[in-house]
């Protein structure tokens, strides 16, 4: 059976970290972007990451961060993966990551079609990324709770390795993620708004429902 990897992002509370891990998340995200309503400091991310059991990966999310800011995050959470969600070039990402695994967010315009966004070109440009978080283009760079047109991109193209590098993101919810996994067949999914009670506050029932909805699509073998 396929097993779509699941990242729950934008955590700010110990209880939410512990629930996400217990419910079956593969990764949790901490937003180190001060302008986000879900922002945490590096020190706080370090405290939260200590609540994770083995094999659940902490991911530090940055938007156009300086090297010293990324360094501070990695000092606080040394085993973290990195997610670059801004305008970083491939060279920026490689330099900032210092050999750590990193993901790069792609931002697909909203509305019908992909609005000129070329996923294959993006994938080639960011060939050194371990994964591409394919998100909607929203103000504030991300976390907007809006889904783009999943039918507009060539997910099964061989240049994407049958979507093996794709993490579907943007406006996912317990109600739509089963359909998203069926259509895209991504390696993973990433969610923030769709499992929240309020910005930065996760709803445990929504987190559990989201993970169950992903597993439903997995069980269908699609
Ligand atoms: O969560 C944020 O506040 C955020 C801010 C800046 C960049 C990215 C952010 N979050 C990421 O956005 C996507 C989609 O989120 P949503 O599910 O639509 O709310 C996801 O990768 C978040 O990690």
UniProtKB/TrEMBL annotation:
Catalytic activity: N-(5-phospho-beta-D-ribosyl)anthranilate = 1-(2-carboxyphenylamino)-1-deoxy-D-ribulose 5-phosphate
CDD domains in the record: PRAI (cd00405)
Annotated family: Belongs to the TrpF family.
Organism placement in taxonomy: Bacteria, Pseudomonadati, Pseudomonadota, Betaproteobacteria, Burkholderiales
Domain of life: Bacteria
Signal peptide positions on this chain: none
Gene3D superfamilies in alphabetical order: Aldolase class I
Name used for this protein in its record: N-(5'-phosphoribosyl)anthranilate isomerase
Keywords: Amino-acid biosynthesis, Aromatic amino acid biosynthesis, Isomerase, Tryptophan biosynthesis
Record flagged with keyword Isomerase: yes
GO molecular function, one term: phosphoribosylanthranilate isomerase activity
This protein's pathway: Amino-acid biosynthesis; L-tryptophan biosynthesis; L-tryptophan from chorismate: step 3/5
EC number of the protein: 5.3.1.24
Enzyme class: isomerase
Source organism of the structure: Tepidimonas alkaliphilus
Pfam family, one: PRAI
Gene Ontology biological process terms in this record: L-tryptophan biosynthetic process
Domain N-(5'phosphoribosyl) anthranilate isomerase (PRAI): 6-212
């Amino acid at each position: 059976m396929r097993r779509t990897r699941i990242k729950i992002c934008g955590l700010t509370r110990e209880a939410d970290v512990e629930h996400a891990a217990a419910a079956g998340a593969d990764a949790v995200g901490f937003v180190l972007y001060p302008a986000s309503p879900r922002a945490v400091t590096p020190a706080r991310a370090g405290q939260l990451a200590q609540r994770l059991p083995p094999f659940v990966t902490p991911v530090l999310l940055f938007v156009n961060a300086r090297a010293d800011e990324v360094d501070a995050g990695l000092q606080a959470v040394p085993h973290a993966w990195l997610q670059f969600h801004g305008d970083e070039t491939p060279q920026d990402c490689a330099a900032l990551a210092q050999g750590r695994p990193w993901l790069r967010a792609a931002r697909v315009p909203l509305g019908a079609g992909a609005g000129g966004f070329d996923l294959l070109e993006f994938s080639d440009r960011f060939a050194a990324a371990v994964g591409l978080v394919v998100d909607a283009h929203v103000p504030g760079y991300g976390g907007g709770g809006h889904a783009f047109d999943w039918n507009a991109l060539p997910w099964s193209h061989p240049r994407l390795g049958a979507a093996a590098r794709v993490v579907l993101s943007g406006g996912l919810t317990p109600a739509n993620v089963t359909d998203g996994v069926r259509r895209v067949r991504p390696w993973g999914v990433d969610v923030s708004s769709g499992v929240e009670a309020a910005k930065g506050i996760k709803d445990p029932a929504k987190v559990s429902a989201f993970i169950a909805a992903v597993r439903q699509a997995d069980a269908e073998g699609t």
